[in-house]
Every structure is written in structure tokens, then in C-alpha cells.
């Protein structure tokens, strides 16, 4: 059976692209931002979409087996004023809940920032769990970090999965392999399909370790023209140079060779988080890669719009991983 999903708070389609790759079919999308809708329209030309979750009744897109979405995080994030679910933006959770209750899909997948767990002393998270249980869902939740799914940035997000009438939700986000993945302490796991090139994908540490949303906020709001020492770095740009010993390449940032070799360590380069000439703002193309989107996914609009959209997006590889596990568990 092909799973038909309804995407709420679609943004530029992080959930949607991941779930499509997992073998699902998009039944409809709902997104308020006009610029983001233009991105959705370009990539899902035949999918119906609406502008406002407050106008969705739950039956407009036919029968759906799954509803997904990352409702606005501004009021629950530790970086915000923490109005919680009483806030104008994060309070749209109640529209999300209303649509779930009306459509009663088999599965629900919700994404948000980890600050949701502590918002209003944890009571806001309890409201969400209670709402899902009252609608008949068994619920599981987990914080997943995108850096362990093949992108070069740490990005911790909470994912809540609900399964209607049973307790199988946990199978979508827990398994032995994922537990081992969470034990990793640094960098992304290397993947054969990310070759070493000047895009920086050879090692996950080419990225400064900041969450992409934080860096994109700094770019968007122009907090400073260039990062100051020990302040807010943008991207450390790798410079690959020839090793005098073996003619292999080594990276002046990582202080390491591109490939294993028997050469002695290079002692004359000081690894430091700030080096003049090695820091710059990331480009929209790099931001797309950091979130797992194909190159130029958001092109055709202003850089500021692209930064904002990508900073708010769901990391595609994480969505795909969850989606595949849901598909595997569906008879």
C-alpha cells in the first residue's frame, strides 16, 4: 500500500522530499509563506496546496494515511521569548491537533526544536502528548541529530510519532542501529556517496559546528559583517595543500590528510577556530547541502528568503530515515 501523506507547515518540503524518497505519495501541502509556496509549486506541480492551516478542515485532500509537519517553533525555542503554546506562532499546534482529530490518519509525525520539552516547565509538551492520546494515538518521541544522517551540521530536533490505536509508533524512531548512531561523539559518519571535493563533504568538521539555523539567522539579520575572534563563526573554508612527503592532499583546517597514509603529522599549522581569510558566510547552495536538499532547490528568489527557508526546514535525510521505517512497518 502506498502511504498518502498530508504535509502541514510544509516550508520548502523537507518532510515531503524525504517521505517521497521513502516511497510515499504527497496528497497535499499547506504553507502560509508565499515564497516557500513557490518552491513547493516548482517541485510538486500537480500536488494541491492551501495557504493557511486555520482554513483546513481535514477532508480537502481525500483520504490520507499520514499527517506530518513542524509547527512554528519561535515561541517554544530557548532562543525566543518562550511564550509557549500560548504564543501566536507556536499556538498553531492547536490547529494541527484539530486537523489530526478530523482526518484520523494512521500515523502522525511532528517535528520541533528540543526547547519544546522544557517550554512552560514541560507543560506544553504534556499538552501535545495528551492531545494525541485523546485522539487515540500511541505516542513515541526522540531527539535526532542530523549530523548522524549524512549532513555536515549538528542539528538536534525532536520528532514525535503517533500511531492510531496501537503502540507501534516507537518502531519508526528506535532501533539498534540508531542507538549506536547516537553514541557517536563527533562529526558525521563518512559515506561513500559523498566524495572528497572542495564542497567540504569529505569530513563533517569542515563546518564550524553551529546549527545551520543559528548561522543563517546571523546571515539574514547581518549581526556582524564578518565573525570576530571567538564570536560567531560562519564557515571555515578548507584549503587543501600538497603534502611534501607523499604528494597527497592535506587540509589546513583539519590538520589531517585526505586519505590514510604513513606520513608523519604536520606540525606547522595551528588549528584554531578563527583564522583570517578562512571564514566567510555560507552560500545558499551550501545551506541547501547542509540540510540535505538537492543543489539549487530554492533558487530563483532572494538570498535572504532562501536562508530563512532553509533555516526553518526539516533536514531531508532525517525525514527520509523516519519515512522508510514507517513504510517498512506498513502492511
Major beta sheet, specifics? 7 strands, mixed
Whole-angstrom Rg: 21 Å
Structural class: alpha/beta
Helix content percent band: 25-40%
Helical region count? 9
How many extended strands? 12
Instruction: Provide the low-confidence segments as ranges.
Output: 181-210, 220-233, 236-241, 249-259, 267-278
**Net shape:** globular
SSE order in H/E notation? EHEHEEHEHEEHHEEEEEHHH
What's the multimeric state?
Answer: single chain
Strand content: 15-25%
Q: Can you describe what's shown?
A:
The structure is a single chain. This protein has 331 residues and is of the alpha/beta class. 27% of the residues lie in helices and 16% in strands. The chain has helices spanning 14-21, 34-43, 93-103, 123-134, 176-182, 212-221, 284-290, 303-312, 316-329; strands at residues 4-8, 25-30, 49-50, 66-69, 107-112, 137-145, 156-164, 235-236, 240-242, 249-251, 256-257, 279-280. The strands form 3 sheets. The chain has a 7-stranded mixed beta sheet with strand order 3-2-1-4-5-7-6, with helices on both faces. A 3-stranded antiparallel beta sheet has the order 9-10-11, with no helix packed on it. It has a two-stranded antiparallel sheet with strand order 8-12. Strand 2 (25-30), helix 2 (34-43) and strand 3 (49-50) form a beta-alpha-beta unit. Helix 6 (212-221) packs antiparallel against helix 8. The chain is globular. 41% of the residues are buried. The model is unreliable at 181-210, 220-233, 236-241, 249-259 and 267-278 (pLDDT under 50).
Amino acid at each position: 500500500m502506498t502511504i498518502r501523506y498530508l504535509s502541514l507547515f510544509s516550508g520548502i518540503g523537507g518532510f515531503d522530499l524525504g517521505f517521497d524518497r521513502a516511497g510515499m505519495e504527497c496528497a497535499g501541502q499547506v504553507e502560509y509563506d508565499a515564497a516557500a509556496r513557490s518552491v513547493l509549486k516548482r517541485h510538486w506541480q500537480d500536488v494541491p496546496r492551501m495557504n493557511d492551516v486555520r482554513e483546513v478542515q481535514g477532508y480537502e485532500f481525500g483520504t490520507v494515511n499520514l499527517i506530518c509537519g513542524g509547527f512554528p517553533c519561535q515561541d517554544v525555542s530557548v532562543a525566543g521569548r518562550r511564550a509557549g503554546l500560548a504564543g501566536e506562532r507556536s499556538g498553531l499546534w492547536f490547529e494541527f491537533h484539530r486537523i489530526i482529530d478530523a482526518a484520523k490518519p494512521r500515523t502522525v509525525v511532528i517535528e520541533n526544536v528540543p526547547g519544546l520539552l522544557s517550554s512552560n516547565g514541560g507543560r506544553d509538551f504534556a499538552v501535545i502528548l495528551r492531545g494525541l492520546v485523546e485522539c487515540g494515538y500511541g505516542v513515541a518521541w526522540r531527539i535526532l541529530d542530523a549530523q548522524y544522517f549524512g549532513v555536515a551540521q549538528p542539528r538536534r530536533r525532536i520528532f514525535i510519532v503517533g500511531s492510531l490505536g496501537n503502540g507501534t509508533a516507537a518502531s519508526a524512531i528506535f532501533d539498534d542501529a540508531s542507538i549506536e548512531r547516537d553514541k557517536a561523539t563527533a562529526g558525521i559518519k563518512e559515506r561513500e556517496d559523498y566524495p572528497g571535493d572542495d564542497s567540504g563533504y569529505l569530513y563533517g568538521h569542515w563546518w564550524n559546528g553551529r546549527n545551520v539555523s543559528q548561522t543563517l539567522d546571523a546571515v539574514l539579520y547581518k549581526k556582524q559583517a564578518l565573525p570576530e575572534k571567538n564570536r560567531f563563526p560562519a564557515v571555515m573554508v578548507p584549503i587543501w595543500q600538497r603534502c611534501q612527503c607523499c604528494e597527497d592532499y592535506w587540509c589546513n583546517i583539519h590538520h589531517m590528510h585526505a586519505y590514510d597514509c604513513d606520513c608523519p603529522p604536520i606540525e606547522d599549522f595551528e588549528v584554531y577556530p578563527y583564522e583570517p581569510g578562512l571564514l566567510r558566510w555560507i552560500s545558499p547552495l551550501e545551506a541547501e547541502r547542509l540540510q540535505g536538499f538537492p543543489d539549487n532547490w530554492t533558487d530563483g528568489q532572494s538570498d535572504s528568503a532562501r536562508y530563512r527557508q532553509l533555516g526553518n526546514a526539516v533536514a531531508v535525510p532525517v525525514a527520509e530515515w523516519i519515512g522508510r521505517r514507517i513504510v517498512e512497518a506498513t502492511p
